[in-house]
Amino acid sequence: MATYKYRAATATGQLRTGMLEGNSRAEALERLKRLGLMPIEAVETAGKAAAKETKVRTNTAMRRGIANALGELAVLLNAGLSLDRALQVCVENITRPPALKGVFAKLRDKVRHGTALSRAMMDSDGAFPPMASAMAEAGEASGKLDESLGRLAETLDRAEALRQTIVSSLIYPALLLTVATGVILVMLLFVVPQFEDLFSDAGAKLPTMTKIILGASHVVRSYGLLGLLVLGIGIAMLYRWLKRPHVRRAFHRRLLEVPALGTVIRNAETARFARTLGSLLDGGVALPTALGIAQRSIANVHMSEAIDKVSRGLKQGGGLSAPLAATGLFPPMALSFLRTGEETAQLGLMLNRLADVLDRDVRTAIQRMISFMTPAITVLMGGVVATVIASIMSAILGFNDLALGP
Q1: Domains of the chain listed by start with CATH number
Q2: Can you tell me whether residue 58 is helix, strand or coil?
Q3: In terms of CB atoms within 10 Å, which end of the chain has fewer, N or C?
């Protein structure tokens, strides 16, 4: 997938520039049209590496800082400050991360030189998500920029909160699994070898389980580093293989079919999509443009491509709920909320409510999965340790029986 630098015009005649990815120039131009822009040119850059060098790296601190700064900017605008003065106050109040201060300083400078805030966001080297410039433009067109920015800040904050909930929930099982692996390796590397000399003369008299444990210890000590090297190379090759579009597409499709995990992924992706789309619609963005932007918020390639097809049909006058239902990828509850929103002309409201419900379901499902994973890992670790100890003790007791025998 190549990176293209484009110039395009909005419906009001404003000029926009930016970067986007596509498998071909024609696909890049088509994506611009689906975003409601009139393409002027799209030129392929030197490559993805060159694009990544200029792109601002976004991490947890940056995402939280952007949400907080946009919320503060909305409050300042609502209080009657001019946009450039409000941006100046935001720049002065930002303390960390340092990169965020530079991002908003560039926004302030561009606005002072007459650039619209929405265009300045689009030209911020990827610091802001696509929905940010769209909602800012809608707010500029309606004269309610403060409301649009406030809604944008709330959306970004909720999305980051869900992301952190998922990550935080997985930390404890990951630590427990790491400790369990470490304990087992310590026993195989240091504890079991202490008895190897004691058992060396026993030979065939050793119990079968003791032989297995001694063999496992020998393999780990002799080939452990080689195994780690092979494992690292294998993970690197798997990562590169999954970067291929057709492989990643198939992998993401299979993930959705995994019991329990597939449901969580489906609900999480649908919640992110619904919140983004609902916020854009409430901010005054047209449905075709909002759908094209919301599609980019989905990480699962299979679901993203399905929404892309729906977006094309929507351009031709089709509905939203029926094509999404035809994909078979979205939860029935989501389709019910969409139908209600279309029938009542409250699609934005229903999408935001759907996102709240799905967020709650995702949190509950993750907590339930972790409640099973934690004792399972503990029992597995205890079972392995008990097996090692029992195999050694059985061999020692066997020696004692021989020594006490006639």
Answers
A1: 2-54 (3.10.20), 60-128 (no CATH), 149-406 (no CATH)
A2: coil
A3: C
Q: Are 1 and 41 in contact (CB under 8 A)?
A: no
Strand order in the sheet with 2-9: 15-22, 2-9, 38-44
Q: Residue 223: what residue type? A: Y
Q: Using an 8 Å Cβ cutoff, are 160 and 295 in contact? A: no
Inter-CA distances, 237 with 208, 210, 232, 244, Å: 37, 36, 9, 11
Write the pLDDT tens digit of every residue in 200-230: 765 557 778 888 888 888 888 888 889 889 9
Q: Can you tell me whether residue 406 is helix, strand or coil?
A: coil
Q: In this structure, what token pair is assigned to residue 18?
A: 């930016």
User: How many other β-carbons are positioned within 10 Å of the β-carbon of residue 217?
Assistant: 20
d(CA 290, CA 35): 7
> Torsion-angle region of residue 55: left (phi > 0), alpha (psi -120 to 50) or beta?
beta
Could you tell me which of 157, 153, 125, 126 has the C-alpha nearest to residue 139? Answer: 153
* Both tokens assigned to 230: 């092979």
CB atoms within 10 A of CB 295: 23
The total of other beta-carbon atoms located within 10 Å of residue 353's CB is 16
SS (H, E, C) 348-402: HHHHHHHHHHHHHHHHHHHHHHHHHHHHHHHHHHHHHHHHHHHHHHHHHHHHHHH
Is residue 272 exposed (0-12), middle (13-18) or buried (19+ Cβ within 10 Å)?
buried
Collapse the DSSP code of 55 into the 3-class scheme (helix H, G, I; strand E, B; otherwise coil) and give the result. coil
Residues of the chain with pLDDT below 70 are 1-3, 10-23, 34-36, 45-57, 201-204, 315-319, 398-406
Q: Judge whether 356 and 254 are in contact, CB under 8 Å.
A: no
pTM reported for the whole predicted model: 0.70
pLDDT one-digit tens code per residue, 26-59: 777 777 776 667 777 777 765 444 444 445 667 7
